[in-house]
Amino acid sequence: MADLRLASSFFIRSIMKTEKLISNLEIQLSELETLQSVFYNPGEIKLEDPTTLYEIKEFIENTSNLLPPEIDLTINIEVDSLKFQLLVNLSHEYPDVAPSIFVRNEKLNRIQSGQLNKDIKDYMENLEKGEPCIFTAICWLKDNSLTYMQLSTESKTSSKNVEEPPCRLWIYSHHIYSKFKRKEILNQAQCYNLNGFCMPGKPGIICVEGKTSDCNDWWQLIRSMPWKRIFCKVTEEFNGEEDFKKFDKFEEVGFQSSSARGTHMDVGELSKYLNNHNCLYIFKDLFGVEPKLTNN
After folding, report:
1. Using one digit for the tens of pLDDT, what is the confidence trace for 136-163?
2. How far apart are CA 270 and CA 249, in angstroms?
3. DSSP characters over the chain
């Protein structure tokens, strides 16, 4: 959604277009060029949006004042005939902050995947900042990935046999723009059999409902990604007997605010959406004000 990142030229000139930002983007382009020279076979490395590089170069060369999108790429590697995907997101602050990396492998179960992604996140955050580190992450994965394939999940599996009550989590984020994060929010919600929605933009709102352990495991995985600010505002717990479901599936919804040129999302439209799903009561908990519904 390109219009999610539109902002006024004045804001970009006065705040965003700094020498440090230009330097970070130049480092990112250089690192990507190096990665492409290593992973040169078809399908080994893929940019989520190929126009991203063009927009970054225009921004660096002062031919565009529009803040470019963040780099989202997928790197496919093999470790002992096992195929792994690294989904990488580079924020505009990288390499001064750790990259967002999520590892996928179809043979990893949820517990193994969760532990692997937690450990690689911890490893990346402990590296020295200011230096490119994607290739370092790849080396770490090659050295450690097989350990997680053998990780025991006995205790967790046995606990799943116990009937547990459902819950609903309401998540508030400063913003959700990254295609990488939006894709994982959706994919992981489906993986954990959760219903609800994700509203990207600024602010970002996520709701998930399902078994308590599934909601908690999903939340642990999602919050392990680098965020400017994200937290669970409300947890609704149920006794298991009542009909708690408000949503039939998990989906991404968008309510663009024309006045903010797409940067912010229209919370008025969100209130209508919540009302249609019989959960308008949560609006004040999320935003601190009463919702205003119109007949339009």
Report:
1. 999 999 999 989 988 755 444 444 456 7
2. 17
3. -GGGG---HHHIIIII--HHHHHHHHHHHHHHHHHHHHS-STTSEEES-THHHHHHHHHHTTS--SPPPPEEEEEEEEETTEEEEEEEEE-TTTTSSPPEEEEE-TT--HHHHHHHHHHHHHHHHTSPTTS--HHHHHHHHHHHHHHHHT---HHHHHHTTS---EEEEEEEES-B--HHHHHHHHHHHHHTT-EEEEE-BBSEEEEEEEEHHHHHHHHHHHHTS--SSEEEEEEEE--SSS-----SSEEE---B-GGGTTSBB-HHHHHHHHHHTT-GGGHHHHHSS-------
Contact 136, 33 (CB under 8 A): no
Sheet holding 166-173, edge to edge: 230-237, 166-173, 204-211, 195-199, 250-252
Here the tokens at position 29 are: 């382009």
pLDDT at 135: 95
**CB of 86 within 8 A of CB of 137?**
yes
Which tokens sit at 225?
């990604």
Strands 195-199 and 250-252: parallel
Residue whose token pair is 């997101």: 89
The per-residue pLDDT for 294 is 63
Residue 26: pLDDT above 90? yes
Query: Do residues 85 and 103 lie in contact, with contact meaning Cβ atoms separated by under 8 Å?
Result: yes
d(CA 174, CA 155): 36
Helix-helix angle 51-60:19-38, to 10 degrees: 140
Mean pLDDT (the chain, rounded): 85
201-240 pLDDT per residue, tens: 888 999 999 999 999 999 988 987 878 789 999 999 988 6
Contacting residues for 18 by C-beta, under 8 A, at least 6 apart? none
